[in-house]
Amino acid sequence: MESEKQIQLLKIPKKRVAILIGTSGETKKEIEEKTKTKIKVDTEGAVEIGGDSFDAWITKKIVKAIGRGFSPKKALLILNEGYISELIELKNWAKTDKSMLRLKGRVIGKEGKSKRTIEEVTQTYISVYGKTICIIGKTKKVLLAKRAVEMLLSGCQHSTVFKMVERERKKWEKERILGG
Predict the structure, then answer these.
(1) In what order do the strands lie in the sheet with 132-138?
(2) Where are the strands (E) in the chain, listed by range?
(3) Which of 117, 115, 157 shows the shortest CA–CA distance to 133?
(4) pLDDT per residue as tens digits for the range 117-149
(5) What CA–CA distance (Å, rounded) separates 117 from 125?
(6) How far apart are CA 170 and CA 148, in angstroms?
(7) SS3 of 106, please?
(8) Is the pTM of this model over 0.70?
(9) How far apart are the first and last CA of the chain?
(10) CB-based contact 83:41 (threshold 8 Å)
(11) Among 1, 2, 7, 10, which residue's CB has the most CB atoms within a 10 Å radius?
């Protein structure tokens, strides 16, 4: 049975188009080869992805991750088994540009410490870009990182969030050691 062909459409920021395409089209070509899809992108950021349904869908996730601030190398991690990306829309947490900026600052932290701590403990990658926060990693770990980010967005103290994340990490480590 042959898989159904599909076209996926999305828009990425103009500033990210060159990163998606890469030097002499190398990045776009690499994504197309690894996903067995065809990508068309214009200078305004409109992207069209053609291919089998699943391939086109997963490529859309990769392109969206690049559009949300990830390097192509990190975005391509989505192709690995067990890896996902999650997108948090800041408009769901902030009503004004000023409050959005404040919330981005809470997630990033002083000199990037909050973001870095969550990334290290959960073994995920986090990109705070525009009006979104995107997380890439293994499913269970991305869900924990997302929970941590959402706790910060809802006003929890950083120390409370870090303790929760560390507790979960220790639980996973114990399960891994005990073979659970």
Answers:
(1) 83-89, 132-138, 125-129
(2) 5-11, 38-41, 46-52, 83-89, 125-129, 132-138
(3) 115
(4) 999 999 999 999 999 999 999 999 999 999 999
(5) 11
(6) 15
(7) helix
(8) yes
(9) 38
(10) no
(11) 10
Q: Residue 22, Cβ neighbours under 10 Å: how many?
A: 15
The first and second tokens of residue 144, run together, are 């924990």
Q: What is the spatial distance between Cα 60 and Cα 48, in angstroms, rounded to a whole number?
A: 9
The CA distance from 152 to 156, in Å, is 5
* Structural domains of the chain sorted by starting position, each given as residue range(s) with its CATH number in brackets: 5-79 (3.30.1370.10), 83-178 (3.30.1370.10)
Phi, then psi, of 76 in degrees rounded to 5: -70, -15
Residue 136: exposure state from Cβ atoms within 10 A (0-12, 13-18, ≥19)? buried
Q: To which residue do tokens 């391509």 refer?
A: 76
Q: Is the distance from CB of 136 to CB of 128 less than 8 angstroms? A: no
Q: How far apart are CA 133 and CA 148, in angstroms?
A: 12
Closest CA to 116 of 149, 75, 78: 149
Mean pLDDT, range 52-59, rounded to an integer: 93
